[in-house]
Amino acid sequence: MADTNGAPQPSTGDYPNLNPSGNTGSDAKGGIYGSAQSALDAAKNHPLTQSIRDGPVAENVRNQATKTTSDFSNLASARRTPDAQTANGQPLTGMWRCASTLLSWENPRATAISYAAIVLFIFAGRYLDLLRYVFKGLYITLGVTVAAELAGVLVLGNGLASRLRPKKYYTIPRETLDRALGDVEQLLNFFVIEFQRIVFAENVWATIAAFAAALLSYLLIKIVPTWGLALIAITTVYFTPLLYITNQELIDQHLDNAANVVSQQTGQLRELAAHHTGRATDTVVQATKDYTAKAQEYIGTQRGAAPATGANGGLNGVKAEEHAARQDFPNAPSHEPEAPVASEPVKSEPEAIPAV
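The structure corresponding to this sequence follows.
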């Protein structure tokens, strides 16, 4: 082995300085971050960016976003128990006021967004295999997790997924769960109560409309698929109130005219029914009087014929009936029956035979 004690040892100053500025790795990262930040600031301060950010289009987008947020806030605040009650005095649920606010287009952006979301959900259920995509996303996520974990264990000695594991798993707060269950309970009771109000004709016009909708659905289900029928139903529910609101004066005028025509026709039918009922009553009364007179005349004739028959036969009235009763049955005996007297036998003499 060579002796290296006498050989001169190289010092660190003999190697070339590869980092003459003295920056470390953190300084390099800081430089990259500073460059990116300066580029971002330059892009923000660019006249074109400022014109787009402060232009009418961006201003309109911000205003619409603010109004949309306000509409959804108003819709959420409408979920409280209304003052209106059912016909039997039962209070309505908070969902009734929320549904009324939603379908009345008081908050048009929230109503339009909810309608678009329902329509997209109907089309997605029709043209997309949602359950298949759910399972596909699930197996891709789990596959990536397994591959990252195994690669981390083989290369780094520690799995990547285990490194990303949080210290505490996420849980649903009890307040959020109670609020969600309360909303579901109010929604279900809203449909149950409204169905009973329609069935028991609390509002006759609503019952008529429900009858027409059920009949039309029964006829259309034979030729229209289920998703098409759902699309027609949701479009009718959302846009019928809007059509009425935008043309309220014209529709109210036609409804008043129709109500007047129906009232006149009902009055005429009532008068006609009363007229025919009166005539029928008079006819029945007259027929009753005629039959009563004939019955009384017949009874009087029979009473006049009964004494004449009694005069000719020496009997009259009840006495004739008593006499007939006495002739039909013998008189009852008035003394005790006597025992029969035994008689002596009579001897018969032989008949004389003449001599020959």
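Residues 1-25, 308-318 have pLDDT under 50 and may be disordered.
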